[in-house]
Every structure is written in structure tokens, then in C-alpha cells.
Amino acid sequence: MQILLFYSFDDIIVKMNIKANIDISKNSFSTNFTPSSAVRKLPLFLLGSGYFYANQDYYTRREGYHNYLLIFTLSGGGELSYDGKFFSIGQGDVMLIDCSKNQFYSTKKGSGHWEFYYIHLNGSAMDGFYELLTENKTYVFSLDKADGIGEIMKETVSVKKSDTLEKSVSVSDVLYSLMSLLLKSRSGAESFSNVKKSEIIENSIELIHENFQDNINLEQMAQSAHLSKFYFLKLFKSYAGVTPYEYLINCRVNFAKKLLHTSSLTVKEICYESGFSDENNFIRCFKKTTGNTPLHYRQLNL
What is the pTM (predicted TM-score) of this model? Predict the structure, then answer.
């Protein structure tokens, strides 16, 4: 099913602008809820939920929707542009955003699909959960143990009616359990012993040494470590004394120095052999690291 939506929704509760291409499979489903004034006083309440098997052209661009969106990825991949940042979303990742802010999320380019559970929720407790879960402006994160979260998400999206206060209280309890579990899992994923931290960074350093000739980047390193990019960057620098990028450049420059000293390859050939994709950038990085251009370094070591 593919629908192209261009509309504005404007009433007493919400002023929302949305543009979306709902390119999803036939087995996808969604449910919307209209909570009463009594239900809106609960710590957490449900506004909508569903399961989407989104195809390649799926996207949503929106702002002004006064609730929070939680997505749990089952397979495939997605992308999020939000709060001035870009995030890649993979299997097992959780995305949490405030839908009142400008957002754009879509199936990741080249992934073919993005399969996920989603819930729109709000309530008096939600602001606090959101603030704790998105510290340092990390809105997409991998979890230490995601199995329980997937099950609760599945249970939540299976709710088709919440038309009494009693049912709404039960749903609120489930949502509270979900958000609490998310908070515990996120804390567990980023609260390691010193031994665990050193093991993670040693593995990342090994990854750099094995792949510095390829187009490896911070996102790939963080995903390999199962950490948010922000936390991985902070952890790596505290352990290695330099950023992952600086360490990568040092590896490439050291390899280039070896080739300049032992081979007859041209500077341009050595640039590409060392993992650089641009000769000018190679020369700039080499000089910054060694104090000499590659050609001058070779002449000094003849």
C-alpha cells in the first residue's frame, strides 16, 4: 500500500504539519486512540501504535504533533534527521523523539525495507523519561538486552481498544514498564566496568588496524561496539587519548611512512594504498602529523 499525504491538521489540541509517503506492505497495521480527559491525567497514555513493514520509499516529515514517538526496529534499517543531527537505525535499535519538533525519518537508503513496531504516547511521566533516555541528544540507541522490550512493544501494538478508564490504566502500567525497562537497558548498555571498557576499545583499535585502508568511519566503529556514537567517542578518547578519527589518521600516516621508505610507489599511489581518498587531504594530514610533506619525508629517508 502506497499513499502520498500532504495535509495540515489544526484544532484545539494539535497543530500538525505532515508530509509522508506511507509505502508499507499489506500486513502492516496501525491503531489510533482518542484518550478522554480522565485518561490524559494518567502517567502515560497511548495515542497510537502499529507494526510497519516499510518499503524502500517510506518516509515521514512532520512537526507540531504534541506527543512522543517510540520505534523498535525488528529488521532492515531506517534513518532519522532530528534536532540538527542524523542517525542510522539498525536491527534492535530504539528511536525516541518528541514529535512536536521537526523530524524526518525514512527507510535507510539501500536497505530495501524497515520493519518496526511503533507507539505514540504521552502523559505526565513522559517528559522525565524522555529527558533521561535522550541525554546528550542521543535519540537512537542500541540496548544491552532488547528481547524483553520487543515483547512489550508487541503486546502494546496488539491493543485495539482502550475505551474504558480501567483498560487505559492497564495500558498505562504496560507503558510504564516499557519505559522503565528501556531506561534500565540503556543504563546497562553504557555503564561498564573498567575491564569491559578497555575490552571494547581494544577491539575497536583492532578493528581500525584491520580496516584502516578501507572507508571505515565513526558510525561503523560505534555500531561494532554496540554503543551510541556520542558515548563511543567519549569512551575511546578517555582510553586512547585521541579520538577514533585521529587514531585512524595516525594508522594511515604510519603505513604511508613505511611505504615511502620501502617502496617505489608514487605519492598518489601511496595515498590510496593508505586508505585516503583524496591526495590533497593525504598531504595535509601527513604534514600535520610528521611536520613534512610525503615527498620531503621520502627525500629525508633515502
Answer: 0.61
Q: Nearest Cα to 70, choosing from 207, 148, 175, 209?
A: 175
DSSP class of residue 12 equals S
pLDDT digits (tens, 9 = 90+) for 50-91: 999 999 999 999 998 889 999 999 999 999 999 999 999 998
Supply φ then ψ for residue 123, to 5 degrees.
140, 170
119: left (phi over 0), alpha (psi -120 to 50) or beta: beta
63 in helix, strand or coil? strand
Q: What are phi and psi of 110, to 5 degrees?
A: 85, -10
Q: Where do runs of H (alpha helix) occur along 89-146?
A: 126-133
pLDDT at res. 18: 85
The Cα-based distances of 165 to 41, 150, 168, 287 in angstroms read: 11, 26, 5, 69
Residue 114 reports pLDDT greater than 90:
yes
* Residue 30 one-letter amino acid: S
Q: Cell numbers at residue 239, please?
A: 582510553
pLDDT, residue 88, reads 92
- Other beta carbons within 10 Å of 238: 10
Q: What span, in angstroms and rounded, lies between the C-alpha atoms of 255 and 261?
A: 10
Alpha-carbon Rg for the chain in angstroms: 24
CB under 8 Å to 191, separation ≥6 — which residues?
Answer: none
CA–chain centroid gap for 223, Å, is 9
Q: Distance (Å, rounded) from C-alpha 275 to C-alpha 75?
A: 31
